[in-house]
Specification:
single chain; 341 residues; mainly alpha; Serine Threonine Protein Phosphatase 5, Tetratricopeptide repeat; 3 domains
């Protein structure tokens, strides 16, 4: 990672000297440098690079690569805003990028397919599940036409269709998509790749929802090992998997274990996403549930209140996650108000 960043910095400097600071070649390398930062979860630096790439591409014309590079830059900038929980900003940028891609690149372009997939992921974060399937299916059709039905590049869309099924409570249907994602990706990359581990974790979530805890827990633990080895112990994917393992421990009555796992996940999310991010609030809500079962009502109350403050401020009180968190908080309040004899 450090070597890739050094080379990107050198390339930017060389191209700025040769072409000037406002040139598509500079934007392209700055975009690649942003990707390096994002892969390392250095979101501030990634955002700055993506903003610069968009600014350059908004100023240049007369180059054959301008339209595609502008669309890619907009998509990357939208994506980093989504990761950071700025959903309204991300939505405006994604919609602009999709419009530009359709107009300039055509309705069957692969960059358009990527944007449709990313916009659907944003819709999930916004709780707008009904708008997701047409976006995923359109992206899948573009990719199937370009690559064929068995290409591993379709795995991401099957993964995301499984995630949509999970969000809508259609767990059996989601397992079909998730297993297909694992099959395609593992065939191409092998069993110890982080992308395969992400597919396995998504499959585990669907099995977990059907109370098939043995297979789900095994998949989560396998994925966690891969993530820790390949991405590092404080990567966001590690936090997500710890959160999900904690949920299984909670469901199986291992409350002390679930509290410990949620605390680990929370530390990573606070470090990587920030203390006011809606994904941080999700783990706070889950920690509150385990604390309540464990009998630590005072801390649980504080945790639920913090989660609600974050969710109300970021996604709004009507978002499904905020509704669930408020319901859990009210359960605890009612429990405390019950007279004891």
């Amino acid at each position: 990672m450090a070597e890739a960043l050094d080379r990107a910095n050198q390339a930017v400097q060389i191209l700025e000297e040769a072409c000037g600071p406002v040139h598509p070649d500079v934007a392209n390398v700055v975009l690649c440098r942003g990707d390096v930062h994002q892969d390392a979860a250095r979101y501030d630096q990634a955002e700055r690079d993506y903003e610069r790439a968009v600014a350059i591409m908004d100023q240049v014309s007369g180059f054959a690569t301008v339209d595609r590079l502008r669309v890619q830059s907009l998509g990357r900038l939208a994506g980093i805003h989504r990761v950071r929980g700025r959903y309204e900003v991300a939505e405006r940028l994604f919609e602009r990028a999709v419009e530009d891609a359709e107009r300039c690149l055509g309705p069957m372009d692969l960059d358009l397919a990527n944007l449709l997939n990313d916009l659907a992921v944003l819709r999930k974060s916004q709780g707008r599940f009904g708008e997701m399937a047409p976006l995923y299916l359109r992206a899948l059709a573009i990719n199937r036409k370009a690559f064929g039905p068995d290409d591993p590049r379709l795995a991401t869309l099957y993964h995301n269709l499984g995630g949509l099924a999970h969000a809508r409570g259609r767990f059996k249907r989601g397992v079909v998509f998730a297993r297909r994602a694992v099959e395609l990706r593992e065939r191409a990359l092998g069993p110890d790749h982080a992308a395969v581990a992400a597919d396995q974790a998504a499959l585990a979530a669907l099995l977990d929802a059907q109370k098939k805890y043995d297979e789900a827990e095994g998949l989560y633990r396998k994925a966690l090992g891969v993530f820790e080895r390949s991405l590092g112990p404080d990567h966001y994917e590690v936090a997500v998997t710890l959160n999900n393992l904690a949920a299984i421990a909670h469901a199986r009555g291992r409350t002390g274990e679930s509290v410990a796992l949620y605390r680990r996940a929370l530390i990573i999310k606070e470090q990587r996403l920030g203390p006011e991010h809606p994904e941080t609030a999700v783990t706070l809500n889950n920690l509150g549930m385990s604390l309540m079962v464990q009998g630590d009502d005072e801390e649980a109350l504080q945790v639920f209140e913090r989660a609600l403050r974050i969710l109300d401020a970021t996604v709004g009180p009507d978002h499904p996650r905020a509704v669930v968190c408020r319901r859990n908080y009210q359960r605890l309040v009612r429990k405390d108000e019950t007279p004891r004899t």
